[in-house]
């Protein structure tokens, strides 16, 4: 006749009716350390491997750096793969990092860098070395394609801002 009893009658008044767990689930810290040391994965990719939240990965990295089991990375800003490709292409074309170059020219270099990177990917990652060459027609083709894709006849101020942002890519 236990079916007619309530939970407190079955388990007793002092016993909880559900199992309690303590804290976060365990994360494989050894795997996390090896992924950090590889230095080629983003925080999001490591979080996907460990099946946890990116903030947990950041917490683990800080904990390991503080304990001395992980070497502190000197480059605070980690790049994703598209950003690294774009930056390498800019180094090939200009001889310097595009973001560092924009930091000397603009107050908000990251905004221009991200816009140029996004447009570069939409174009199919063309050679910026060829764009830099005045005799090559690729630069003219990309300018016309940019005007066709990104100009908005209603919002002229937005067009001007976009043109100002893309101009350093052709310098």
Descriptive report:
This protein has 171 residues and is mostly helical. The chain has 2 domains: 28-78, Orthogonal Bundle (Arc Repressor Mutant, subunit A); 81-170, no CATH class. It is 60% helix and 0% strand. It contains 10 helices and no strands. It has helices at residues 7-11, 29-38, 43-50, 54-67, 81-94, 98-105, 109-122, 128-132, 138-150, 156-166. The protein is elongated. It starts with 6 loop residues before the first helix and ends in a 5-residue tail after the last helix.
Offer a concise description of the structure.
The protein is mainly alpha-helical and 171 residues long. Helix content is 60%, strand content 0%.
What's the helical proportion of residues?
55-70%
Indicate the structural class: mainly alpha
Give the averaged pLDDT, no decimals. 76
Shape: elongated
Question: How does the major sheet shape up?
Answer: none
| C-alpha termini separation | 86 Å
Low-confidence stretches: none
Number of helices: 10
The succession of helices and strands, N to C, reads HHHHHHHHHH
* Strand element count: 0
Number of domains: 2
Rg over CA atoms = 26 Å
How much of the sequence is in beta strands?
under 5%
């Amino acid at each position: 006749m236990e079916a007619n009893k309530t939970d407190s009658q079955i388990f007793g008044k002092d016993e909880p009716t559900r199992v309690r767990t303590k804290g976060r689930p365990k994360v494989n810290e050894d795997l996390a350390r090896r992924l950090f040391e590889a230095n080629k994965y983003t925080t999001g990719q490591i979080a996907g491997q460990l099946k946890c939240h990116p903030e947990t990965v950041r917490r683990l990295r800080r904990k390991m750096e503080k304990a001395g089991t992980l070497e502190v990375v000197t480059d605070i800003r980690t790049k994703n793969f598209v950003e690294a490709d774009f930056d390498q292409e800019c180094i090939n074309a200009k001889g310097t990092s595009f973001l560092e170059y924009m930091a000397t020219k603009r107050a908000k270099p990251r905004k221009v860098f991200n816009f140029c990177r996004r447009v570069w990917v939409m174009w199919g990652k063309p050679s910026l070395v060829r764009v830099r060459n005045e005799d090559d027609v690729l630069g003219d083709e990309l300018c016309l394609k940019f005007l066709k894709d990104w100009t908005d006849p209603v919002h002229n101020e937005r067009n001007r801002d976009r043109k100002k942002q893309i101009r350093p890519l052709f310098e």
